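INPUT
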Amino acid sequence: MSEIQLWTLIFVGLSFSLYIYIAYRSRVSDTAGFYVAGGGIPAPANGAAIAADWMSAASFISMAGLIALAYNGYSGSAYLMGWTGGYVLLAMLLAPYLRKFGKYTIPDFVGDRYNETARLIAVICAIVVSFTYVIGQMAGVGVVFGRFLEVNTTIGVIIGMTIVFFYAVLGGMKGITWTQVAQYSVLIVAYLIPAVAVSTRLTGIPVPQVGFGQIMDELEGVQADLGFGSYTSALAGTDQLNMFLLTASLMFGTAGLPHVIIRFYTAASVRAARYSALWALFFIALLYTTAPTVAAFAKYNILTDLRGTPTEELPSWFSTWANVGLITGPDGGPLRDVNGDGTYNFTGAASDIANEVMINNDIVVLASPEIGGLPAPIVGLVAAGGLAAALSTASGLLLVISSSVANDVYHKRINPQADEKKQLLVARISMAVAIVIAGFFGVNPPGFAGEVVALAFGLGCASFFPTLVLGIFWKKCTAAGAAAGMAVGIGVTLFYMIWTIEIWGNNEGIFGIAATGFGAVGMVINLLVTIIVSQFTTKPTELVQELVEEIRYPGQTALVAAHAAGELKLDDDPDEGDKGPGRHRPH
Amino acid sequence: MDQQQRTEYWRRNLRLMAVLLVVWALVSFGAGIFFTEWLNQVSFIGVPLGFWFAQQGSIITFLILIAVYVWRMDKLDKEYGADDYEKGVRHS
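OUTPUT
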């Protein structure tokens, strides 16, 4: 066993024991605890949990590589702005109002505010979005285990599944929340330590965000010498329309993804929901302002390490990752010194010398400690951080799936008479089934994982965001309008993606709009359809309009309290059924 | 709160949101995308300014925007005498 493997084992073992201990301490026995952790999580802890929920394997492992290696440094900015800008929308347009509404899930809000058809569409969207996302996380877990412990990917996924199974099924949202707080701590420490160390080595400044500026001139110089375009130029490799649409899709998608929205239900109060958004973005910004610096440092180190180095004297990180097949020849085949000059030339399009190297985006963060010449314990720490990022997001998504099935399908539609114990059992069983399905797809991922993630964002953006915002800010928005808007928004977005995806439709697309950015267009279509249909359909009942009005104001009001306690009947037809108080379940 | 106070409270909430969202759009879509090349002519702590906005400045601005929002909303709530947060919401 190598030194790196030993340290990986130590850090992964320590962090996993911590998660299991926390989960055991916070096991739950009621549905409010399982779905929303009892709704009493203080804002800073809730913010850390949101941050861990949000920052997945993609943020931790892939993002810096995407910035450093795809086109040029600038084009990756869509992810930086998109995945943080959505929190401004969440904080102002959704979080306080949904918390005041006081339910468990997104379909719960949609079903109460609109009608049962809309609830069903929302359930389907929530499950599809969450599953597509969770499969990617499981695959990420497999990669980290495979590289650092050299176990089979399948065994890696099974280990990850077992851990998630333990704390999610036992503790529900409460277990997940406190585990996520621990996972955030692990992942941010694992991300910042190598970044600070590399920044200090390269520039003598321990703050990477400042050190960033110190190497920019040198990086631009090396890039130009090797025939790469300018690292900072906004016009290379991407056009402004697609940059704009991708950023917008990621922003509105962030504000429409159920596993993030559901986290505001766990806040202790409306005020705590607002502060949760602030804490969440603060914790996220620590990683997101560091990621572009990791990218720039890594790009500089990679270029200077490889430049003119004879093939037999290459640094050890190069051969390690070449052995795993993540550094290859330009065609994806084995490395070859094509022009026979004794080096593997890593060059850009404008160079006279042909490029001989392709580096996978995903290795930049995992390899940056090795590239920067840092000791083995730090490499092990980064592996534990990558696992924390993947597992925390996976557990949040699995909770959305299980609560959608157990609360919105089983309790609200199939068996409204079910008692607490039975509901909890159904929630735990659906969680277990979801974990097994996610694990299966994590071992056998569908071939087009990249497109599937884009689909998740497009769906969140084109379905939930307009429906939720109009539901809060427009009292006269009707159930038929919302249902039509959601269905058309998702339908058009799905169609466009399938139509343009290489393996099926392979069409050019309209105005050259990439499938990844089409969610923003789908959202505008949803908005228009909802507004137009709402003009011609039955207005919401007086009671619903009153309720929408009530959630806008602070303080306790009788109507909202009665609704949150499940004592209001919000049927479409006010004459039907009894209007007396429903079952009251105190907790 | 009576009806007039409610209307007033809601209007001030909307005005605050509108101002903050305009800044949000100007910094991200403006400085970060449409005017990046133009801003790149200036350098800020060693990085071209437009590029800095796209990779660092926009994120820092978003954080400040939410901070201003929670601070102003706290003030607004206090002005209208709302302080019973902790018992104001429940779940079912």
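end of record. Residues 572-587 of chain A have pLDDT under 50 and may be disordered.
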